[in-house]
Amino acid sequence: MLKGEKVILRAIERDDLKRLHELSHNVDLSTLAGGSWEPRSLAAVEKEFDKDLEDKDKHYFVIVVEEKVIGDIGLHHVDRLSNCTSFGIAILEPEYLGKGYGRDALGVLVEYAFRLQNFRRMWLETHGNNERAVRSYKACGFVEEGRLREHIFSDGAYIDTLLMGLLRSEWEMRRMRNAANATKSDLAGVGQQQIAFIAHD
């Protein structure tokens, strides 16, 4: 189990499949996350789950907030030769959108991929019109590496696909910078407390 500030990521269990299947019924959010939607039976989801159990390079998690599953996230297209992986994320509970849960989940997954799994590079494809997702990816350090024009058909129109990536070295630099900023903030807080204490005396 992996913990962030707002979410917990844990392995998908068979008991989660019914919940994930119910969440996938939200056509609009599923389309944003994956580009297309088609009806899938719970039996088909269970069959795919059983098949994935044999694949050691499947790194799939449910996103949990206060014991409630709100979506899923995971590494895909794992290439151990070049030490690269892509990922996918879907928050499928409308009330949890735009509140930092997806960003927190992605931050936890990035930490897992670089610190625990020793990947060199992470990448993704996302819809060019999914501005909320693009903002979250950029906030986690991903940069746009390319654009495939009118590459995917989604919600009645052909739209661009963005290719975004993050290098391990870039992630390490961000961690060092964040740690340094946190230290400065802590020191500033101590200074302010001392000033307040002196003023009170």
What level of helicity do the residues show? 40-55%
What general form does the structure show?
globular
Q: What's the average pLDDT?
A: 88
Q: What's the β-strand tally?
A: 8
Report the uncertain regions.
Answer: 195-201
Please write the string of helix (H) and strand (E) elements.
Answer: EEHHHEEEHEHEEH
Q: Given the structure, what is the number of helices?
A: 6
Strand percent estimate: 25-35%
Global Rg: 20 Å
Largest sheet: spatial strand order: 1-2-3-4-5-6-8-7
* Helix-strand makeup class: alpha+beta
Structure characterization notes:
The chain is of the alpha+beta class and 201 residues long. 42% of the residues lie in helices and 31% in strands. It has six helices and eight strands, in the order E-E-H-H-H-E-E-E-H-E-H-E-E-H. It has helices spanning 17-23, 27-34, 42-52, 101-116, 131-139, 168-200; strands spanning 2-3, 8-11, 59-65, 68-79, 84-91, 121-127, 143-154, 157-167. An eight-stranded mixed sheet has the order 1-2-3-4-5-6-8-7, with helices on both faces. Strand 1 and strand 2 (8-11) form a beta hairpin. The termini are far apart. Residues 195-201 have low confidence and may be disordered.
SSE inventory with pairings:
Layout: E1 2-3, E2 8-11, H1 17-23, H2 27-34, H3 42-52, E3 59-65, E4 68-79, E5 84-91, H4 101-116, E6 121-127, H5 131-139, E7 143-154, E8 157-167, H6 168-200
Parallel strand pairs: 5-6
Antiparallel strand pairs: 1-2, 2-3, 3-4, 4-5, 6-8, 7-8
